[in-house]
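Project outcomes to date are best conveyed with an example. Our students and postdoctoral researchers have been running inverse folding experiments weekly, and each run begins with a structure described purely in tokens. The record below, which covers 359 residues, was selected by the lab manager from last quarter's runs and is presented without edits.
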């Protein structure tokens, strides 16, 4: 039975370039629907690194010290009086953003777009790199016994992939082209395969990342686009798709945020194709391929984090072993080495860095 210690060490971004440990009060359960989680594993994310290096990410700015981390799993140590679905000792994946119960977005089933969202490690809200974290019970997804806590922490980026694939309704009979072989692109590709795509073409500019994807079954084909033109890409696409019903990919995802990738991805699609933008790029694009969108009757969407059931489906994919996320963890650090972990992540030599603890 997990016990509660009376301290709560946290990894705090004080200001740009400065991370320290702070011992903060153990949070109290005041809402009967909440649970207290002892955090066990936390993945480092590009956004954490952005805050560390620049103090901002997208339109969010760090204006006061903030606990880092939002990709976590842990063990329940206390439950509120109204909690029915979880008990002390359960291992859970933690969905790190709590919307307002009173927003139109929440009521319409799009809670990820709630303007009052309190999201971990997004200013001004503290993150999960601490000993104890509170969440409503329905923002915790119980992990099956055979799914590890590391996999539980990877549910966060996996849910990003699930959300994107669901937005464009990827299913059996589809095929996809995904740009970006970082953790998000790899998981978007892996989810597309798990959802039934027979052909998953992953595009990046780093051979090692592409080889990794194929080795671990996350993509069926790859293309290194460094120095290549759109025609070069299409030669490859047509050779892969030559015997398929549509001759071209029916679905596309950009997970780079690079506008050339978005442009090429959209133009590579079959008629009636569906595209979703996951990568965060510039506010405006120089060359949006609007003619292709019009002539091919394409659907173009945006994707922001995850929403109703994405966490559940992500855990289900892991439960049923529909994709293997474990190899994504290339480097491991202890909670006491969190600052080293952030420093190491700057080198860009890792796919996913995992921080265990605090013990
Ligand atoms: N929409 C969301 O909710 C959401 C959630 C998480 C992350 N993101 C965004 O998704 C993107 C990917 O996240 P990540 O953590 O995997 O980042 P990452 O930086 O690890 O991966 C990006 C990949 O894109 C590749 N790339 C860059 N420029 C390229 C180009 N011109 N051609 C081909 N490949 C290129 C890089 O080599 C890298 O492998 C980021 O922009 C991130 O901000 C969005
Ligand atoms: Zn993240």
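After processing, the design step wrote out the following sequence:
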């Amino acid at each position: 039975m997990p016990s509660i210690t009376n301290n709560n060490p946290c990894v705090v971004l004080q200001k740009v370039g400065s991370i320290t440990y702070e011992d903060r009060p153990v949070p109290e359960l005041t809402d009967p629907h909440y649970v207290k989680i002892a955090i066990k594993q936390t993945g480092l994310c590009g956004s954490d690194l952005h805050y560390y290096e620049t103090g901002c990410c997208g339109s969010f700015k760090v204006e006061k010290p903030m606990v880092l981390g939002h990709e976590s799993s842990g063990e329940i140590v206390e439950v509120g009086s109204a909690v029915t679905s979880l008990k002390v000792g359960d291992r859970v994946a933690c969905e790190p953003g709590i919307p307002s119960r009173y927003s139109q977005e929440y009521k319409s089933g799009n809670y990820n777009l709630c303007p009052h969202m309190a999201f971990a490690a997004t200013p001004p809200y503290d993150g999960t790199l601490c000993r104890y974290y509170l969440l409503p019970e329905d923002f915790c997804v119980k992990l099956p016994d055979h799914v590890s806590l590391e996999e539980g922490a990877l549910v966060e980026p996996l849910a990003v992939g699930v959300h994107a694939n669901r937005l464009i309704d990827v299913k059996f009979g589809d095929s996809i082209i995904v740009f970006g072989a970082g953790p998000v692109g790899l998981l978007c590709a892996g989810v597309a395969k798990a959802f039934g795509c027979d052909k998953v073409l992953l595009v990046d500019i780093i051979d090692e990342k592409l080889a990794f994807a194929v080795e671990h079954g996350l993509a069926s084909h790859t293309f290194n686009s460094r120095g290549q033109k759109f025609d070069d890409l299409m030669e490859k696409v047509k050779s892969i798709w030559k015997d398929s019903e549509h001759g071209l990919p029916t679905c596309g995802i950009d997970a780079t945020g690079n506008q050339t990738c978005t442009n090429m991805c959209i133009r590579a699609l079959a008629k009636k194709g569906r595209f979703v933008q996951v990568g965060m790029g510039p506010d405006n694009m120089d060359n949006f391929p609007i003619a292709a969108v019009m002539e091919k009757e394409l659907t173009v969407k945006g994707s922001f984090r995850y929403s109703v059931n994405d966490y559940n489906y992500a855990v289900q994919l892991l439960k049923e072993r529909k994709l293997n996320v474990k190899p994504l963890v290339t480097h491991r650090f202890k909670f006491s080495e969190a600052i080293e972990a952030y420093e190491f992540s700057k080198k860009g030599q890792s796919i996913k860095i995992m921080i265990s603890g605090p013990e």
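The first strand starts at residue 8 and ends at 15. The chain has two domains: 8-142+325-356, 161-302. The training component of this project remains on track.
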